[in-house]
Specification:
The chain has 536 residues and is an alpha+beta fold. Helices cover 39% and strands 9% of the residues. It contains 21 helices and nine strands. The strands form three sheets. It has a five-stranded antiparallel sheet with strand order 1-2-3-5-4. A two-stranded antiparallel sheet has the order 6-9. Strand 4 and strand 5 form a beta hairpin. Helix 12 packs across helix 17.
Amino acid sequence: MGTCASKPPPKPNPYARKASPPPETVSEPPTPLYTSKKTPLRGMFPPPSPAKHLKELFFRRDDMEAGYPEMDKNFGFTKQFSRKYEVGEVVGRGHFGNVHSSIVKKGELKGQKVAIKIIPKSKMTAATAIEDVRMEVKTLRALTGHPNIVKFYEAFEDVDNVYIVTELCEGGDLLERLLSRGGKHSEDQAKSVLVQILNAVAFYHLQGVVHRDLKPENFLFSSKDEDSELKVIDFGLSTFVKLDQKLDEIVGSAYYVGPEVLHRSYGREADLWSVGVLAYILLCGSRPFWARTESGIFREVLKASPSFDENPWPFLSSESKDFIKRLLDEDPRRRLTATQALRHPWIRNHSRVKIQFDIHVFCQMEAYMRTPPLRKAALRALSTTLAQEELLYLKEQFAFLCPDERRGISIENMRTALMTNATDAMKSSYVPDLLASLNVLQYSKMYFEEFCAAALTVHQMEAHENWEERARSGYDAFERNGNRAIVIEEVASELGISPSEPVYTVLQEWIRHTDGKLRFKGYIKLLHGPSTRRLQ
């Protein structure tokens, strides 16, 4: 305590609306959970200052919208809150408001305990704050019903407050349970937690929702039981995304934010980075990226080099480390999706795994439909090198779309599969665009062999150690069945390169002078397509 008392109090944090408040143990000196150079969870001091450019960004964002006395704070919610609910003790505290337990006084839930988040309208000083409340209610209403997402009941408002009524989870949050176990879980305990998180993430990603603030404090256990269900909460920073849309708003909590968020170009994959950070913490009790300031944390995040050298990592399974590494990949294109993570060898046999549609597969199919013939041939050749683990995942996804492999996927299969799992959230996201882009399936069907070529991800395959060998095997198959004489103009057209670009002069090196067919280097560039056409 003495060493802490001499330090000045931390400065106000402009990230306050996006990060959790410091734990109540903040005044205690750091107490290591085990011998490690990394700072443990217990007794963490909040970073005293954020990165300068991010601070300015947030101030600009809020200041431009703040200060308008006539700002509309009417949400259209029901007004008779006090007639139906009796507010009890505080069970959680946040930056915008507190969460109270409550007893329902009338209606179908009469006598039942619920949780009520009370958000004072006086704290909504910017249009973004009002929109965040609208988004949270809209998202919770759309996603309610999934066992690992907190159940939403209704929303109220009066002149002073907004009231969001949800189920009451009495088992505490993930951070509390983590600390009660000395800061880390066994591998089996960690699997149980991560499987439930990934089940929820896979579900809401399919609906077109990105959470953007996954951290231990935003997961609650239903009860104190050891095998209690885990629930995702707090969708205040969530948003809906369109097909191929990239978000540019820097939101979230410093320790869990992905590199691409700091680069202001990200999508669903950012949630999986946060899951990777959570997995690392669950297994060893320390954060993978730490510094004394938020700017320092961001520098560590951008390095994307978590340590697996210190205890307890040498004593944990190689599969657990591979699982985390494939989520904490700095390139979001190589990162596992939530559904793929559920198929990872480390957790795929867990009893709580629920395999779902993977929106990533749909996006890959949409891109494949727009792909020129030569690149389709290159992808089909590469698909012959898929490993058994990858084929298992693709067979499951194909079966969701078309249970009979011999019949092939049609546009009706796609529409049925999407609508079977649809919520109201889909109406605000990508589904209409996705079905429109797959209209070609009205006139032909896609069978499993071509589905493998359409759904594979070249960048994910590159992350494997045997990529060079597999690429060579794919090229050999391409030579036998797909490679043909091609002119430089056709290569440029397939890769979206204009004659005025400097790279155009290099294209000739990708073509053999003897027969006009693609060399191995040209084949690799063709696999990547237009999005990665830059050359070093």
